[in-house]
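Kindly inspect the following:
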Amino acid sequence: MLGPVILAASRSDKMRRLVSAAPVTKPVVNRFIPGETVDQVIPIVADLTAKGLEVTLDVVGEDITTREQAAAARDAYLELIDRLEDLGLGTKAEMSVKLSMFGQSLEGGHELALANVRPVVEAAAAIGTTVTLDAEDHTTLDSMFAIHEELRKDFPRTGCVIQAYLFRTEDDARRLAANGSRVRIVKGAYKEPASVAYQDKAEIDKAYVRILKILMEGEGYPMIGSHDPRLIAVTQELARRAGRKMDEYEFQMLYGIRSDEHLRLAAEGHRMRVYTAYGTDWYGYFMRRLAEKPANLLFFVRSMITKN
């Protein structure tokens, strides 16, 4: 039951300071977050795409408190898009954004987030790529889905994320699958109460498969966010049953986790996208990666022990 504890720590300023100050933290963080600036991450994108992989880029950062920070987040993505265009990487790399970073939680946040994310979506479309709206905690989802629907009026390839551990997600999947949108399915990485989310791993896995079946049988484009070998095999079987070709869905995995599997799936002809985060405000993202899988936490602990 370490996951909920780590997720709680991801919101703790005291733990943020402690983990950030630990001498061994940076080398371990680099496994999941390969850079803090555009200049550092662009060579990573070039390397991954040269290997036949595609990329999702996430400028990490959450819990902003001012409109100026929201505008800065917008500008960071616009700078990224400019660099991708300059290097001709636009068709191989999409963007993933958290609306909290664009001001969603501030006063008038729904309208503010929409106003900030729209120019990013527009700029992405201009270079031949798109944006996916990340799912955050359950209290933000109605706003996220409404913004997603609004953006798709002008940019129909705009994607969104659904989380298997939430009770509501099967209904969300039916609506989105019928609507033909791009949908990334993940298990979920926020601390959610038992009133809205499954707490047992086996129940989450069952829900994931049910939702994946809905997406595969629908009219949209499923994006499977998982490193679980069983779910990867289930995906391939459900795609076969639904008569989907390999370019009619894709796998997505995190940078730094199961890299050999990234290459294996790509070599088999699957679309394989590597979710690559960068930026200075890495703490929340890093802690959720530890919470998702015990092996990630053990990797971190072993690194701390061997460095001391």
Summary: The first helix runs from residue 2 to 9. Residues 5-10, 303-308 have pLDDT under 50 and may be disordered. The beta strands are 54-59, 93-97, 131-133, 159-163, 182-186, 221-225, 250-254, 272-278. The first strand starts at residue 54 and ends at 59.
